[in-house]
Amino acid sequence: MNIGIFGYGRMGKEIEKIAIERGHSITAKVNSNQPKESFDLSETDVIIEFSIPEFAEENIRYALDNDLPIVVGTTGWYDSLAELSDFCKDRNGALLHATNFSIGVNLFFALNKKLAALMNPFSDYEASLEEIHHTQKLDAPSGTGISLAEQVIEGLDRYDKWENVKKTETSNSSALSIESLRLPDVPGTHTVTYTSEIDTLEIKHTAHNRKGFALGSVLAAEWIADKKGIFTMSDVLNF
Predict the structure, then answer these.
(1) Quick one: CA dihedral 35, 37, 41, 45, positive or negative?
(2) pLDDT per residue as tens digits for the range 127-173
């Protein structure tokens, strides 16, 4: 399979390494010095997009306009998701988006959703989230943190929104706290905590490196190559 990488930074290089290990070829390595228009994409089968939020929407439209399936790992653009989903349908294209492509994180999503449903009757427990990323992470909270928070809100009747503040700084008791920390050289840690006067229950996912995110995106690219529609990692993993 021939893969174009839109966003050839540290993650793009990791994607390239894993794609080649799995027998694929790289047809484009797009970055600020080499724009996508400078590459011949006629032999490309799929695009993997890991750029920055400001470029994500343009890259998605470009891929769909050129009849190229696209896998999007960039976060921070989801305000445009509905519009881009309609654009994808109009073009009869293929768009696969995820706030996190790590298989472990997607298992964590499933666990988080189940735990929130179990905790709903026990109102003595106060929920909160913490997400830690490297200092180059531009969006806060992370897309993964938002996905986890939305699952908690869906499962717990006592929350109706999230706020990107410490637990002690939320505006009211119905606001779920997401605390964002940015530290040097940290691939990513997400923690969901339930605290009562009696005890604390906590689930955590810690990434050791970027390999899990890169591998998941390549698996997603392999999966979507011959499909049409709008998908997430839940479809890839058959959750």
Answers:
(1) positive
(2) 999 999 887 776 789 888 999 999 999 999 999 999 999 999 999 99
What distances in angstroms separate CA 30 from CA 27, 36, 52, 121, one per listed residue? 10, 5, 12, 49
Strands (DSSP E) along 39-188, which ranges? 46-49, 70-72, 94-97, 126-134, 161-163, 175-183
- Kindly tell me the sign of the dihedral angle through the C-alpha atoms of 37, 38, 42, 43: negative
Q: Which of 14, 16, 18 is nearest to 4 (CA)?
A: 16
Q: Which residues carry out catalysis?
A: 133, 137
* CA–CA dist 195, 231 (Å, integer): 35
Structural domains for the chain:
2-101+211-237 (3.40.50.720), 103-206 (3.30.360.10)
pLDDT digits (tens, 9 = 90+) for 220-235: 999 999 999 999 999 9
Residue 132 carries which side chain, given as an amino acid letter?
I
pTM score: 0.80
